[in-house]
């Protein structure tokens, strides 16, 4: 798995994103490429933009119990895995805008580094280690970039 806190790994991830075109088609799933980029941006919006509310106590407990291991564990996501409602992007998005946002978020995450994320609280899963944060970021990006063949 790539390390999103290493500049070389971040450059490889961005190189994959740069290979996407507005006409790129998915191998599976319902989202078009612009929606996929917007979907990937949601992870970073939770952290940096404060536009998504934190999960309430009961929901957070259930997410930690049933979802956290899937999201921060090493096992890759299955194709057509269900997603949380906050991550569903059904409206049309602008490819270049979403691509630019995602690259900026990835660079910001790399620049802040693993020490910024170690023991940082997630909106959904509570406190995560730097390894868990990295797994969550890298696995999600790899899943969707693979979905679009890059």
Q: Measured on Cα atoms, how large is the radius of gyration?
A: 15 Å
Number of helices: 6
The separation of the N and C termini measures 16 Å
- Please tell me the overall pLDDT: 95
Structural class: mainly alpha
Q: How would a textbook summarize the main sheet?
A: 2 strands, antiparallel
Strand content: under 5%
Q: Number of folding domains?
A: 1
Number of beta strands: 2
State the order of secondary-structure elements, H for helix, E for strand. HHHHHEEH
Give the strand line-up of the largest sheet: 1-2
**In which range does the helix fraction lie?**
55-70%
Shape: globular
Low-confidence stretches: none
Task: Write a structural description.
With 150 residues, the chain is mainly alpha-helical. The chain has one domain (7-147). The chain has six helices and two strands; from the N terminus they run αααααββα. The chain has helices at 7-18, 33-48, 57-66, 68-72, 95-117, 130-147, and strands at residues 120-122, 126-128. It has a two-stranded antiparallel ribbon. The longest helix has 23 residues, at 95-117. It starts with 6 loop residues before the first helix and ends with a helix.
């Amino acid at each position: 798995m790539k390390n999103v806190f290493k500049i070389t790994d971040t450059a490889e991830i961005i190189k994959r994103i740069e290979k996407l075109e507005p006409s790129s088609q998915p191998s599976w799933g319902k989202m078009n490429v612009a929606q996929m980029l917007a979907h990937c941006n949601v992870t970073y919006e939770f952290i940096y933009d404060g536009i998504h509310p934190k999960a309430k106590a009961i929901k957070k407990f259930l997410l930690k119990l049933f979802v956290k291991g899937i999201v921060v564990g090493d096992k890759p996501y299955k194709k057509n895995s269900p997603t949380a409602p906050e991550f569903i992007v059904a409206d049309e998005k602008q490819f270049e805008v979403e691509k630019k946002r995602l690259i900026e978020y990835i660079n910001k995450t790399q620049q802040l580094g693993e020490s910024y994320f170690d023991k940082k609280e997630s909106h959904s899963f509570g406190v995560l280690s730097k390894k868990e944060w990295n797994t969550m970021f890298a696995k999600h990006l790899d899943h969707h970039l693979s979905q679009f063949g890059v």
